[in-house]
Amino acid sequence: MKQIKALNETYYANPSHLISQRAVKKNGILASSENQSSVIKNNPVFSIDIDTGKVANQKQSGRCWMFAALNTFRHQITDTFNIKDFELSQNYTFFWDKFEKANYFYENILTTATEDLSSRKVAFLLQTPQQDGGQWDMLVAIIQKYGIVPKTIMPETFSSSKSSDLNAFLNKKLRKDAITLRKLVSENTSTEEITIAKNNMLQEVYNLLATSLGTPPEHFDYSYVDTDGNYHLKQDLTPQSFYDEFIGRDLSDYVSIINAPTKDKPYNQVYTVEMLGNVVGGKEVRHLNVDMDTFKNLAINQLKSGEAIWFGCDVGQSSTRDSGIMATDVYSVAETLDVDFGMTKAERLDYGESLMTHAMVITGVDLINDKPAKWKVENSWGDKVGSKGYFVMSDAWLDEYTYQIVINKKFLTKELLEDIEKDQVTTLLPWDPMGALA
Questions:
Q1: Closest by alpha carbon to 103, among 64, 142, 135?
Q2: Are 401 and 419 in contact (CB under 8 A)?
C-alpha cells in the first residue's frame, strides 16, 4: 500500500494532472486532446488536385481495398465517357472474392492437413477462414478472371452493405468443411474423391453467396446518359468485354510499393505473404519495399500525370472522423495524459502497434517548394465524414502511418524495375503486418 500511496501523491503533486483529469472525465481522451491548430494547418487546398467527384460508401463492410481500387477505375470512366456519379459494382467483385477465398481456404486446409490443429498456421486459417479484407493484387486477380460490371447491373444488397452475418455463416460453413477435408486426408482418400468433395462444398458456397448477394451476370445491356444529355446503349456485354471497352488498363503494369523500415525487410527487395490471396493460381500479392523518399517521389509523379493512387495505411492512428484530418499533431494525447507513447515506425510494426488497416485513394498533393506538405485523400465512408468524404493527410502522417501505394511501372526508375523483376521473392509469414487490409 505504501507504493500506491506514493503513486497517488506523485499524481496530485502535478497541477496539470488535475486540469487534464477534469477535461478527460467530462469529454474523453481524444476530444480533450484535439488541436484546432492542426485542423487549421491542414486545410483542404492542394497545388495538384484531381477532380474525382462524389465519394462512394462501403457502409458496414470491410471492402475498403475493393472500393479504393474500383474508385481509381471509375475516375477514368467518368472522365472518358462523361458519366456523372458513376460507380462500378462492388457487389459483383465482392461475390467472386468470397467465392474464390472459399476455394483458397480449402486448398490451404488441404496443404496443412497433416499438421496438428495446434499448429500456428492451421490456427491462423481457422481463426478467420475468410474476411472482407484484401489487397490490390487480389482485386486484379478477380478482374482478370471475372471482369467487372457497372453498379446498376449488380447493385448492393443487405449483405454486401452489412456483411457481418454473411461472414459469420460463411466462416461457420468453411470450418465445418475443414473438418471433412482434414478427415479425408487422414484416411488417405484419393485425390479424385477429395476433389469431388471440395467441388460439392463450392456449390454450397455459391448457393449461399447467390442467395445473399444475387447472381452475377454473364451477359447484360448497359445504357447511360452522358453529361451532355446524349443517350448511349451498349448491348450484349460480358463483364470481361465491359472492362476492355470502358477501362482497358493492362493491370500487369501496376505494382505494389511499400515502405516497411523493419530489419526483416531490406529495401529494394520483393516480398509476398504466405496464405494471402483469393484466386488459386491467380496474380500473387507482391510488394517492392523502398525508402520513404522514393515512395513519395513515385506518388507525386503519378499524381502529376493526372492519375490517382490506391494506398494502404493505418487509418485509426491520430486521425479525426468528423473533420477528416490525418495528422501526427491532430491530438496531443501524450501531453494530456503525461505519458510517452513514442515509437519509431519500425517499432510499431514489429511490436504490433500498427499495421495496414484501411485502403483509400490519394487524389492530390500540396507541393511547397517542390516538397509535399499535405495530401488529398478520397475515402469510401460516404459524404457525411471528413469534407464531403475527403480527408487531408499531413506529410508527417504519411511518413509514419502510410505503408503501401500502387504505381504504374512507367514511373519506376530503371533500377526499381530491375528490382521488381528479380526472380528472388521473400515470403513473409501469414500474419505479417504487410498482409491484408481488414
A1: 142
A2: no
